[in-house]
Amino acid sequence: MSNYHIKHFEEYFQVYRKSVRDPEGFWEEIAEEHFLWRKKWDKVLSWDFSKPEVKWFEGAKLNITENCIDRHLRTRGDKTAILFEPNDPKEGAQHITYRQLHERVCKFANVLKEKGIGKGDRVCIYLPMIPELAVSVLACARIGAVHSVVFAGFSSTALSTRINDCEAKMVLTSDGSYRGAKTIDLKGIVDEALEECPGVESVLVVKRINSEVNMKSGRDFWLQPLLDEAYKDCSPEIMDSEDPLFILYTSGSTGMPKGMLHTTGGYMVYTAYTFKNVFQYKEEDIYWCTADIGWITGHSYIVYGPLANGATTVMFEGVPSYPDFGRFWDIVQKHKIKQFYTAPTAIRALAKQGTELIEKYDLSSLKVLGSVGEPINEEAWHWYNDNIGKKKSPIVDTWWQTETGGVMITPIPFSTPTKPTYATLPFIGIQPALMDEAGNEIRGNQVEGRLCIKFPWPSIARGIWGNQQRFKDTYFSAFENMYFTGDGALRDEVGYYRITGRVDDVIIVSGHNLGTAPIEDAINEHPAVAESAIVGFPHDIKGNALYGYVTLKDAGEGRDQDNLRKEINQVITEHIGPIAKLDKIQFTNGLPKTRSGKIMRRILRKIASKDTSNLGDTSTLLNPEVVEEIIKEAL
Ligand code: WTA
């Protein structure tokens, strides 16, 4: 039995038990047999959640890029490492082999060094989904610089805040980016941001859209001429297992974004191991994750996890709607994608388009479908399963977080029987607990509580950059000796987990706890509904009442709104009970979303409470204009 590759359900249980009984022994074996270390560790694990402090493979020496690139050169030198699919399909895909990737990363790393970047320096990467993004991430790791990727859709204010927080010395960007039929002036955004960032010494600019940009002399440099001059080999900086690998910002419920800090050895081991098993990756497979590398999903499951396994990983520059809504399926057909990993929000958007465009394409290569980022509602799950997977590709509903580094609760495809809306069982080595508000663990099945993790896993974040106190307060203070996820979950009669949503989104109505996700699930069952979001608002008698924002398919053409309101409450009553009925239903043309597709409930909550004076910064939203519309209609 190989513990590295789990092939059936019984094996999952065996390996799981082993990983929990003897975590140190288990992870030591995985680390030893499947990775390249320059020096072995002195100690597998030391931890104390009360401090908090976690160290994996202490004393070990390695470079993650040697594991992701160099060690594959002998056997996979000519295999495609990165398959780049550009925004415009006419431009044609680009295959970058492991050998070519090695050379590109080495050259880029040498350019960074020449510009004064060394071990421990922070480099901010603000690039679109082009090969240079993955290459620059790896180039930083090659020389021990700490990358901080900022999604290239964030505004200049969001960018400068992040650059200053981690005191980045350098910014990597491009002249601009393509997004469907539009172009975006990235360099202009960087220029604006840098007016607030005195610490940035240099900016390297990739030419992508051939636009006119302003180059500040002494600060800004075109990348290509520097690469042309650079030497094609760069020996990897030998890092300690606990040396920082990257910072990635994630928004908290309040205040500044949190710069989650991940380190090297444990992150590598866990992302590689989860990738192999969650996607059942086999040597010839072409794997595609539609996320952006600006998010944790892209870090762990476009770059590090796949490359550590010698996989072929697709990078898609464009959007699902360009040139038309068949683009995803066109890419699946063209590259014979085996594993397809996307977000429920994308699934719902595509489902709204009907199935005509899907029927034009051959999707028979698909083997595993993934979902991540938010609870997948029942309707979307079935749509995905029926129309994309044709009921033969298991859906892996993977629950995890920026903070966890890798997938935490998930089915293992072809092993774990799936169940719509359930992330099912903890991954190997993960020990979840459900807690009640008094701080006690809720044991047994058919229970619901706050989701915590009892024991460290190798890729847990080690801190918040520059603010360990906030790290402790946010994740390790709510429950003693536990990592608190901020999510609620229920455990069904067989022990399967279902994530019910952020606990900060729980609404207490007449003393009953109601999760927003299950109510939204119910509403979305209504055939006229495209999407919905529920928030609480103050109510004299019930404490809180429910306010529903609902977008309709085809903008609700030909429907009587009052009838629809009644029908929606009827569906809720059927699925959950009359207690979950909505007091107010507002039909909207869209819901305010973050760039990663999450609904901004904070804003909706304020509007529902008629408190629109201070909505905070809405400029980083995907669709800030929707907010104005909703306010106007609400009042
Ligand atoms: C939510 C994304 C339900 C959850 C990898 C979590 C999910 C937050 C799922 C983290 C899922 C993510 N089912 N909820 N499969 N995946 N979430 O940091 O609330 O962008 O806490 O990481 O997304 O979002 P983040």
TrEMBL record:
One of its GO terms (molecular function) is ATP binding. Its EC number is 6.2.1.1. Residues 519-598 form the AMP-binding enzyme C-terminal domain. PROSITE patterns: AMP_BINDING. One of its GO terms (biological process) is acetyl-CoA biosynthetic process from acetate. Residues 12-68 form the Acetyl-coenzyme A synthetase N-terminal domain. Pfam families: ACAS_N, AMP-binding, AMP-binding_C. Belongs to the ATP-dependent AMP-binding enzyme family. This is Acetate--CoA ligase. The lineage of its organism: Bacteria, Pseudomonadati, Bacteroidota, Flavobacteriia, Flavobacteriales. The gene is acs.
